[in-house]
Specification:
3 domains, Rossmann fold, six-stranded parallel sheet, 14 strands, 433 residues, 16% strand, alpha/beta
């Protein structure tokens, strides 16, 4: 962890530079996977699964029986904890459902909006050493609340060719309709083009490695939407001298243990804190199973000593972190000055892990500075908004003459005619439904 | 216009195929423009303006004086009509601003959301034979309502190297901060990378030709967000035998006159209507200034006779039109069955031109079937949603144990530690801010 004291604004760009996911280098390989799945469907998916996961599967779809059995393979304390997280995530995401009123814009002109679920959505859950059931909750709960009628989940098969019971348990709890033991770019390709086993979807959600990220990018060229651009995970912490260095160390390490390309940033006005945090980090690393990964991530990480808290806020807004922890007594006021961040954790007792798992907020958040222009995942991400308008005879009489002037000045005469014909019909009392 | 009677479902894909904007063929040229502007800034922008627009400009920025003068160059009836549209669009888009309540998810765990304006937004208005002031209103009104502090507008210079007064008038009315006489891919490049004259932005909005569309796609690889993928404009009309064929003809022509790659679709259960509409279209074409463009567009267009209205609804949901006109007495009920559309026009007296100009809804809508997975432009398109959470000592005591279980099962031990340390501190009455 590098320490920088009172950096000049001209150096902020360099100090907040992020480790890059090198997507471009894998694009040719991913293109060839996409191409294969587009042309050969399941056969290609099975072939790539054999090639990359070393598994000959006969079925991609996880059977109902396997899913049922998994319900008994999850220990009760984990079930209870998943249930606790489920309740909170559901509560927060249910509040995001919006009913829009009809608006009488002027007499006889009524407009309104409606959020309509996306028909078919694909959720991707990465593999790895541990089952990421928390990501299942974060993707599938809003999908179900949005009312999506077709929710499919893809996740790489484990070494036995099956899916971890905790994933299956969470997926069933959330109402996922179909689960497929397919990972990597071949999963994204199947969701993009459809195969015999796996339906094509309208939007793909979820995190993944470079191959998955590249495949999602390519999917957007085929008419499929994606949740957001992906990059390595990151946290920024703003703290003052009152902060507990151990809390901060654990928060920084929570992020660092995610992956070697994670980035953590401490921004403070306290020379003491900037000296004590690295010691606390070293101490905690000793007992951390994923210390190797965390150490590599810490090489991308920086402790920045600033002149005052205002400057801390400025550089954080400049950085636009995915996660922002504000560990100060007046964290609430500081939070009001934040313009760019994915999710904000307020006060000394709100670690990032609360939002990663169970406070209720979503943990699928914009990385790589995308907090400047993207929202984190929410229930509306699984819907689209349709607008409606209805004019009565009074409405067309009031609005029509203005539309005629506007259309004429844009030289769009059929636009004008469509209005004129209706105004004339109303004069003659015709066609007024 | 081709007529198809009772097409089988297996043929729907072919019948609803859209004319494609051939983006790929212009990508190399656009890449070279992007590259030039990235490296040479204003100089490259001026050079490309000379090359493509045939104009040697000395300034890219439209001066305050020019903008002020333009206010007197717009005739009062047009000012009045623009004002009418402005009021309605503002009213509908203001209602889209959302205040989210704080939610106590469980005792001591408070979560909330806030929509925060995107800092810098770029609006693109295409050139052409007529000034598209309506697009200025549609982009700039929600940008201003969202509270974006930096709203920039780029539009190609006209033959005198200036911008049409009606564009300048609308832009000032809407509170645009800076206007630049730059068009094409070089405008998008300048907004993406920033130049001496033109600031880099976080998100780019607005329609454009293939070059602009390709440049916007490339911009997304540089950390800039865009409003939505673009394609040729389109309308579908559902009508029954009671519909006035002249209304429908004018609605179809309103879309067809936009451009030769526009697509119009009439879907009806009435054999009479499908016979009378082409005659009405031919009649109206005779007096239409843009008849040549419209005729070309009509070649991409289809009249589909279906067995009943339910089937009309099904094929429309399959097609996912940008604009949908429902011209029937029970249009409201039918509208409730629509799952995929950008904007819906209800009843015989609501032409597409009402929403194109002045009903209040936005006319920047998803094309090319993207109504399946994208919303039209709205005030939230100019904002991002940040989530917040704050745990009290009660909150961490209640939530902490579940997070510990979840983190341990995902093998993320620092995540667990960040909670454990806080639970222990609360036990000892420490650090409870």
């Amino acid at each position: 962890m590098q320490i920088y004291r009172y950096p000049k604004e001209v150096d902020w760009a360099k100090l907040t530079q992020r480790p890059e996911m090198n997507i471009r280098s894998v694009v040719p390989a991913v293109q060839s996977i996409m191409h294969g799945v587009k042309n050969e469907g399941d056969q290609a998916v099975l072939r790539f699964t054999e090639e990359f996961d070393g598994l000959r599967l006969s079925n991609l779809r996880v059977s109902d029986k396997t899913i049922s059995t998994s319900q008994n393979e999850v220990v009760p304390p984990l079930k209870q904890a998943i249930g606790h997280a489920f309740d909170n995530i559901e509560r927060f995401h249910k509040a995001q459902l919006t009913d829009y009123p009809e608006l009488e814009i002027e007499p006889g002109v009524v407009c309104w909006q409606k959020d309509v679920p996306i028909d078919r959505v694909g959720l991707y859950i990465p593999g790895g050493t541990a089952p990421l059931f928390s990501s299942v909750l974060m993707l599938a709960i809003p999908a179900r609340l949005a009312g999506c009628p077709n929710i499919y989940l893809c996740t790489p098969p484990d070494q036995n060719g099956t899916v971890h019971p905790a994933i299956l348990y969470a997926a069933r709890l959330c109402g996922v309709h179909e689960i497929f033991a397919v990972g990597g770019a071949q999963a994204i390709a199947a969701l993009t083009y459809g195969t015999h086993s796996i339906s094509r979807v309208d939007k793909i959600f979820g995190p993944g490695n470079r191959y998955v990220t590249a495949a999602k990018q390519l999917a957007t060229l085929e008419g499929v939407a994606i949740d957001m651009p992906a990059g390595p995970s990151e946290v920024a912490v703003i703290a003052d001298k009152q902060a507990n260095a151990d809390f901060i160390a654990a928060d920084l390490l929570s992020q660092a243990e995610h992956g070697q390309d994670s980035q953590v940033l401490l921004v403070t006005d306290s020379p003491e804190l900037i000296a004590t945090v690295p010691i606390a980090v070293e101490n905690q690393l000793k007992s951390l199973p994923r210390a190797d990964i965390a150490r590599q991530a810490l090489e991308n990480s920086r402790l920045l000593l600033m002149h005052n808290i205002e400057e801390c806020v400025d550089i954080v807004n400049y950085y636009a972190p995915e996660h922002l922890i504000i560990n100060m007594p007046d964290a609430r006021q500081i939070a009001q000055k934040i313009r760019n961040a994915g999710s904000v954790f307020i006060g000394s007792l709100t670690p990032e892990s609360s939002g990663d798992y169970a406070s209720g907020t979503n943990h699928t958040l914009p990385t790589s500075g995308y907090a400047r222009n993207y929202s984190g995942l929410n229930t509306r991400s699984f819907m689209k908004t349709i607008t409606y308008q209805e004019l009565s005879s009074e409405g067309i009489n009031r609005l029509g003459p203005s539309i005629e002037v506007l259309a004429e000045n844009e030289q769009l005469h059929a636009h004008k005619l469509a209005v004129t014909l209706r105004i004339n019909a109303v004069k003659e009392n015709k066609n007024e439904y």
